[in-house]
């Protein structure tokens, strides 16, 4: 039988049986057409049917186990199609499976259903149609076959994902992560930012931010041209030329607050992604204190202490959060925002953690969006779950 004809037959049979509330026994009450053979009655029997595990969460898999026996005296091919119904009545039909059984042989057919993000919490019912040609088949049903538990973590993940129209919520089970971890980690270590960040541009943005911050704090002390010169001297490391009052201004809380605001505005203005800009601001303020204490050129310190470690440490923490979340919750969620055909922003949904030496404890019930990086290519497991 051709594949197209088979699919047509499967579709008609499934529709006919699933719309009926009666179980149709697999019996043929006569000869096999054209053969004169009288078959064993019934042709087959279903000996067991179950769904395991009984409770599953997002990112986990349900196994539908169907044990059938071939009562006939000849080898027969058996077909099975499963239909899943969620608590709201929404149905999903799985791809069919086939099994060849020898005379009097019995075997267990297994169909799999993966709990995707956005699944409805509650009990799911399962119907399975089994048949062998040319006989009518049998349908078995199991109401409340298993329960999907949507955790607070998954609910919060879905709510965060809904902020963007072009976002994908990707759930990776602990088992999938263990199997693919090395390749996933290697792919996350190669963001496009590592080559796209323009050191000269960012250093200039930082110098201008420092200049404007000093202009607000020291406008009653120094004229504008002197403040511009102070900013240039700090950038170049000419500390002997900088007035003491100006150096003291760098250490005030007011300077830090204004600088943070200036930096975030300018960094986003030159195209730095907001999550990266926020991290650069933290590194940039720290670079000011280090540069003054060491009397080093601020532009060099900014690159060394703010830019280079930023990407590496951000990814390192992201990988740690990924591992901890998968261990604690048996799966981990990612939100991938498609910026263009070859640009993807990868974010991790993690719980907040308290660090105590080597111990990590989950804080109660708060999911956070953690930006890992922007990439021009993704690991295959992400693409597959995105439908690519």
Question: Can you tell me about this structure?
Answer:
The protein is of the alpha+beta class and 388 residues long. The chain has two domains: 3-148, Immunoglobulins (Immunoglobulin-like, Sandwich), CATH 2.60.40.10; 151-388, no CATH class. The protein has eleven helices and 13 strands.
Largest sheet: 6 strands, mixed
Query: Mean pLDDT, as a whole number?
Result: 80
Spell the H/E element sequence: HEEEEEEEEEHEHHHHHHHHEEEH
Percent in helix: 40-55%
> How many helices does DSSP assign?
11
> How much of the residues is beta strand, in percent?
25-35%
The end-to-end distance, rounded to whole angstroms, is: 31 Å
Identify the overall geometry: rod-shaped
Rg: 32 Å
List the defining traits of the structure above.
388 residues, alpha+beta, 2 domains, six-stranded mixed beta sheet, four-stranded antiparallel beta sheet, 11 helices, 13 strands, 30% strand
Describe what is shown at a glance.
This protein is α+β, with helices and mostly antiparallel strands.
């Amino acid at each position: 039988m051709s594949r197209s004809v088979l699919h047509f037959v499967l579709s008609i049979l499934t529709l006919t049986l699933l719309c009926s509330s009666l179980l149709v026994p697999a019996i043929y009450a006569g000869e096999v057409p054209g053969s004169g053979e009288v078959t064993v009655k019934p042709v087959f029997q279903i000996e067991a049917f179950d769904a395991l595990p009984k409770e599953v969460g997002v990112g986990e898999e349900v196994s539908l186990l169907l044990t059938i026996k071939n009562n006939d005296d000849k080898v027969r091919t058996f077909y099975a199609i499963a239909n899943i119904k969620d608590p709201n009545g929404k149905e999903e039909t799985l791809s069919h499976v086939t099994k060849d059984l020898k005379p009097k042989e019995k075997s267990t057919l297994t169909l799999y259903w993966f709990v995707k993000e956005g699944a409805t919490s509650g009990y799911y019912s399962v119907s399975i149609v089994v048949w062998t040609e040319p006989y009518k088949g049998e349908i078995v049903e199991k109401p409340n076959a298993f329960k999907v538990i949507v955790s607070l973590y998954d609910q919060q993940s879905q709510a965060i994902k809904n902020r963007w129209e072009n976002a994908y919520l990707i759930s990776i089970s602990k088992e999938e992560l263990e199997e693919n971890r090395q390749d996933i980690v290697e792919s996350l270590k190669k963001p496009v930012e590592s080559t796209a960040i323009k050191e000269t541009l960012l250093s200039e943005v930082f110098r201008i931010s420092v200049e404007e911050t000093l202009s607000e704090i020291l406008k009653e002390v120094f004229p504008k041209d002197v403040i511009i010169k102070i900013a240039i001297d700090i950038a170049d490391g000419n500390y002997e030329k900088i007035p003491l009052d100006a150096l003291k201004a760098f250490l005030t809380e007011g300077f830090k607050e204004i600088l943070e605001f200036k930096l975030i505005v300018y960094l986003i203005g030159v195209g730095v992604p907001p999550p990266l800009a926020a991290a650069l601001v933290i590194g940039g303020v720290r670079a000011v204190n280090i540069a003054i204490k060491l009397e080093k050129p601020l532009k060099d310190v900014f690159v060394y202490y703010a830019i280079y470690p930023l990407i590496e440490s951000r990814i390192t923490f992201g990988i740690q959060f990924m591992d901890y979340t998968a261990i604690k919750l048996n799966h981990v969620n990612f939100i991938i925002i498609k910026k263009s055909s070859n640009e993807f922003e990868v974010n991790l949904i993690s719980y907040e953690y308290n660090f105590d030496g080597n111990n990590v404890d989950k804080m109660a019930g708060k999911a956070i969006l953690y930006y890992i990086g922007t990439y021009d290519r993704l690991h295959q497991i992400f693409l597959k779950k995105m439908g690519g």
